[in-house]
User: Fold this.
Amino acid sequence: MEPSSESGMCKRARRLRSDAEQNRDRIVEAARKVYRREGLSASMAGIARAAGVGIATLFRRFPTRMDLITAVFEDAMQRNRDAAVAARDAESAWEGFRGYVETVCALQAANRGFAEVLTMNYGTAKVLERQRQEAFEAFTELIGRAKREGRLREDFSPEDLPILLMANAGVLGAVGDAGAAASKRLVGQMLRAFSESGSEPLPPAPSPKELFRGMVRQRRSGGS
Amino acid sequence: MEPSSESGMCKRARRLRSDAEQNRDRIVEAARKVYRREGLSASMAGIARAAGVGIATLFRRFPTRMDLITAVFEDAMQRNRDAAVAARDAESAWEGFRGYVETVCALQAANRGFAEVLTMNYGTAKVLERQRQEAFEAFTELIGRAKREGRLREDFSPEDLPILLMANAGVLGAVGDAGAAASKRLVGQMLRAFSESGSEPLPPAPSPKELFRGMVRQRRSGGS
DNA sequence: AACCAAGTGGAGTGACCTATCCGCTTATGC
DNA sequence: GCATAAGCGGATAGGTCACTCCACTTGGTT
Assistant:
């Protein structure tokens, strides 16, 4: 709306004061840690505390939760996009496919926030939306190659990837410690289903004990 | 602790007054509806309101959330157990297996609360724990039969079922309207992975539009 | 009909959350 | 060095939640 507010730098309306810039970074860094552990529903107050700043500072810099999420996960989403592009250009399409799927699911396992970001709808966050779109397009091209290679089943659909990501996030969210093992197992099974030969090796199943004992206790209220 | 409080009836300490009994039933019925739609994190106050009783009445009858969950889902869990036993005794082990997996996943799709109940750890709710245990044991026997039949892959593990249930719950939780279609697709892929021949038919993938548009907006706070 | 324990609803408590207001502090340009 | 706008953080408003307390009501029994 306003025509060229000051100098050429139009990305940020005005340069931040140096201490403010530092606080911003501290907030993003703290949020990164908290989101990784607790997921996107982590409280704003908790993030501010972890960053060592007041609540107001957080809200001044990131008026909506989505602004913070965008700032935190922009680079992870970029790496995801780059991984998809690299897979698309890999020598063996199937190896690229398998590697990409395993990688992104492992990233989900390592970062609860990222697992949720990958499976949510970013209403207004155009940056994340574009990154996902680009990754998705690269992945779709990869699918074509892998099918022509004869290694990926013909009826595989691009939508099977987001479905797998949502499924994987579900497993990771439902089971705590044994999450990584269960996730690997799920991904292994899915890759088998995707592969034309169906002869993919399968990671070991987690033991019943770690699986059941790892399940999150209750959704709410720890019951006397 | 107390030796034989009064009469032989030791299941309920004392018979409820008739109006109290009626209120109890209304609460359970209301909770059934609310849990189905909103999942287990539905608020207690909302359930009381839906039942047309005061909050105190709800808490007097069901001191912890788990007590209410148990009362609501005991019969669904029993039906689940019965389905597993029936599948175990089915003529074709593979058909029993496939049918049971599809059935329980469809039940999850139809009932958000049940989807969560199937993937959680019931700390003190011994009834639910026993029902799950019995279902799990029947299912484990079924697995043996299906493997001997040569239709189920040798490396299938009983733990793959809970993993699938958690995955399915994740898909259903992440996507709203298109949940059923995405869930069916997931189950189809998994059954392919489980089957020795790998020639299971695959339900159609949901369209990208309904899949992405169906994704839940945000975890919290609807962004300005 | 009268008694009363069992039952009831709603106000109240305290915890936690997002989000804003406002008086004080400080980095920066001159 | 000084003026001042930018930035700061704590207090606070206003929401939701689980859960309790208590004065009143009512079903069942005699």
About this structure: Residues 17-20, 43-45, 55-56, 59, 63, 65 of chain A lie near DNA strand C (CB under 10 Å from a C1'). Chain A touches chain B through 56 residues (CB under 8 Å).
